Amino acid sequence: MNLNEKKDIRILAFESSCDETSTSVVKNGSEIESLVVATQIKSHARFGGVVPEVASRHHIEVITQITREALAEAGCTWQDIDAIAVTYGPGLVGALLIGINAAKAASMATGIPLIAVDHIMGHISAGQLADTIAYPALALQVSGGHTEIVLLKDPTHFEIVGDTRDDAAGEAYDKIGRVLGVNYPAGKTIDQWAHQGKDTFNFPRAMIDEDNYDFSFSGLKSAFINTCHHADQLGQKLDKYDLAASFQAAVVDVLAAKTIRAIKQYQPKTFIMGGGVAANLGLRERMEEEIKNLAQPPKVVLPPLKLCGDNAAMIGAAAYNLYKEGKFAGLDLDADPSLELPYAADYQ
Ligand code: KG4
Ligand code: ZN
To answer: What pLDDT sits at residue 5?
Structure first.
């Protein structure tokens, strides 16, 4: 080997914070060599949401098998792995502990160093798997538990500049989905229906004109549910496609308005979207369109749809940045279910 040749860094990553158990081998923080996702969606759908105890049991059942699969698919043995990464929060404590203990056991048995990754940093770092990121960057992080505008000063320093005051966007999708009889998680189906309907209900766009980057979706959710219940009482049948289109228009209007204002203030070099709701086609189209029209548009990085939801490749991507800075975890690593990114100093 040429001694000047840079050694590739391979990270084996674990993700088990909610209802997907996932393992992945990621090369140099940007190239997916393998990705295995064992989803539990069917087990939770009949309960209308994730049942924590059921989630933990499923994680235990598959984690050993999918660790072997991720290594085999990447054509690797443990000798090829430079670090073992794992999500340590936020998430369901029992679910997180399965991934953490698998990662710690592997690290202890092999001597390979351990890296602890924040799940939200992971979602945003999924952008790295799609394209190169120039810093500072700004991210819109939209998932089942989070709706945040995040400023990335560099690959490992992320700060919240906007946050939801109540429900997360994905949570609102799932709650109104229930009213429409759509199984959990409802976002994808509502998105498809929205493309077949029109915004006729004019639902509220909460906080859209407020001078901050925060969001609120619980008023929209209540307005939606009241509209449906009221129609039920009158024996009227509302068009589900128009309902979906009206709900999505309200969500997308607020997300786009606030994010564009944040882009104008912080002037990032790259704009990234992350989280399950970043797979929303209406939101993706709208953000690309609005950013294109800016005087100084940042580069737009939208991870492919399969990397928006929970997966271990995004954890491997984030872990690479920590690896380069020598930020390793000890074998005393514990789950932090309510882990949060820090708020920016100017967050109001
Ligand atoms: O990031 P994720 O997989 O898990 C969390 O960390 O929360 O996000 C799951 C959320 C669910 O609420 C789901 O309904 C939503 O993402 N979601 C969508 C779409 N696909 C998934 N929401 C809107 N449009 C979509 N296409
Ligand atoms: Zn997630």
So the answer is: 61
pLDDT of residue 4: 52
Please report the pLDDT score of residue 200 as a whole number: 98
CB count within 10 Å of CB 298 equals 19
Pairing of strands 157-163, 299-301: unpaired
* Distance between Cα 309 and ligand 2 center (Å): 6
Give, in order, the Cα–Cα distances in Å from 44 to each of 14, 171, 186, 221: 21, 15, 12, 22
Give every residue of the chain whose pLDDT is below 70, as ranges.
1-6
**Ligand 2: distance of its center to the CA of 70 in Å?**
20
Q: Is 186 in the pocket of ligand 1 (CB under 6 A)?
A: yes
Determine the Cα–Cα distance for residues 252 and 262; give it in Å rounded to an integer: 15
First to last CA, the chain: 54
Asked whether residue 204 falls in the same domain as residue 240, the answer is yes
Residue 337 located in a structural domain: no
Query: What confidence score (pLDDT) does residue 2 get?
Result: 54
User: Which residue's CA lies nearest to atom 3 of ligand 1?
Assistant: 309
Q: Which atom of ligand 1 is nearest to the CA of 17?
A: 6
pTM of the model: 0.95
User: Do 148 and 271 fall within a single domain?
Assistant: yes
Q: What is the pLDDT of residue 3?
A: 52
CA angle 116, 119, 124 (to 5 degrees): 115
Q: Is residue 343 part of a domain?
A: no
Residues 86 and 230 in one domain: no
Domains of the chain: total: 2
Closest C-alpha to 305, from 271, 285, 287, 280? 280
Contact residues for 258 (Cβ-Cβ < 8 A; gap 6+): 149, 162, 207, 208, 213, 214, 215
- Which among 52, 126, 60, 124 is positioned nearest to 91, based on CA atoms? 52
Residues 148 and 275 in one domain: yes
Domain that holds residue 221: 132-302
- Secondary structure (DSSP) of 143-191: -SS-EEEEEEEETTEEEEEEEBSS--HHHHHHHHHHHTTPPSS-HHHHH
